[in-house]
Amino acid sequence: MTEKMVVSRNTSVNRLRDKAISDCRPTKVHVLADGGGLELTVKPILSTSQASGEKVVTGWNRVWSYRFIRPEDGKRTKMGLGNYPTVTLQRARELKRSAQELLSQGINPITHRADTLTQRRATEAEVPNTFLRNATDWFQLQTKNVKSRTAQKTWRSLEKHVFPKLGNLPIAEIRNPLIREALSELADQGKIETIEKLCRAINSILEHAVIMDKLDQNRCLRVRRLFQKKKVTNQLTIESSELPQLLIDVAASSMTDVTRALFMWSLHTLVRPGEAAGTRWDEIDLPNKVWTIPAERMKMKEEHTVPLSSQAIEILDEMQKFRRGEFVFPGNFKAKDRPMSSQTINMALGRMGYKNRLVSHGLRALGSTTLNAVDSENGVQRRFDPDAIEAVLSHVDKNDTARVYNRGGKYFNRRVELMNWWSEHIEAASFKE
Predict the structure, then answer these.
(1) What is the pTM of this model?
(2) For 74-109, how does the pLDDT look when each residue is reduced to its tens digit (9 = 90+)?
(3) Which domains occur in the chain, in start order?
(4) Which residues are catalytic?
(5) Fewest beta carbons less than 10 Å away: which of 271, 336, 375, 401?
(6) Digit-coded pLDDT (tens) for 361-415
(7) Dist CA 277 CA 265 (whole Å)
(8) Running DSSP on this structure, what letter comes out for residue 268?
(9) What is each CA distance from 420 to 206, 312, 389, in whole angstroms?
(10) What whole-number distance in Å separates Cα of residue 199 and Cα of residue 218?
């Protein structure tokens, strides 16, 4: 059966906005037109609900395309331009303009792209396929996907500890024993954290080479196991049973109204401290009860959507009377164009007597522990899917393939139920003695 497609078109150009794209969460294929032939096809990802057995929307794939008339025969066709948000709205428009320039010269942009790729492969074939060469290609991609400072720091570490021994080797020769030898000095010094970061970077480079067809297989996936494990330090948090007393202490504290609102917002949404403190009004979609945190504000540079419970929306309503700029939780009046510091909650908790017991990041651990312990109504199994809980916490999937399929509205329907339950649990705890 052919899937019905909804198309939104008009004659204007550059009419799309990132917010409109994020807000588009259809239940069937929908096409958004930016004008001039540039379109974004939004297709829902359907999964079978474990509870009802029905198909539910768990995310959306968004793919750019450019429609044009072929100069060689006058027939209509289209070319793919990549997935959003990997290919941003601005970049898609640039690609469209490049294609239009080629068409003005009588050149088919699809044919031109294929010819360019063939020429590039021929040129690359003349260059030795070394680990350093592939690392350089990988680094150029990293600078677009992660914070510049983080990418530069990783590259300097590779230059210091890895490239001198592995850089000039053919990438197909990279094996666990060679990596272990290259990092042996760091292991002797007990620099486990540096080793972990370098192992992740090396594996990422090898995986990139596989994707780019420069390497048949990454044979170093388990190289980290050759080194001593780092001791895990958990964020300070409290037991689930202590939540009622915490809420009593917060209500009775000398916190300002804005600080108290930020605390409750962090608790209800379970986002990271910096993400909560930097909340912007234009990220909030009240009609759809969704908060969309853009990729540039997220730890792993991936957009994150947060379903908003009625309790979370009440916090936003309360903050309207303090509104004086773009931030929901503004700093002091001398810095009204800045958000409240992400450390504000930690300082307030310290004054309340929770120093060395609880930090703001520990609220996420509190939520995770509570949600993972909730039984279903029949008591046979856990009520909430662990993957949905991880999605709420915006933890990155270890499996890269899963990350691709889960991107966008990751487990969204299940997260709505989960977040509503969590807020009701908090509200109920506030009435316990």
Answers:
(1) 0.50
(2) 999 999 998 898 889 999 999 999 999 999 999 999
(3) 6-124 (3.30.160.390), 131-226 (1.10.150.130), 240-429 (1.10.443.10)
(4) 272, 299, 361, 364, 395, 405
(5) 401
(6) 999 999 998 998 887 554 545 678 888 888 888 775 544 433 333 333 557 888 8
(7) 9
(8) H
(9) 42, 9, 13
(10) 13
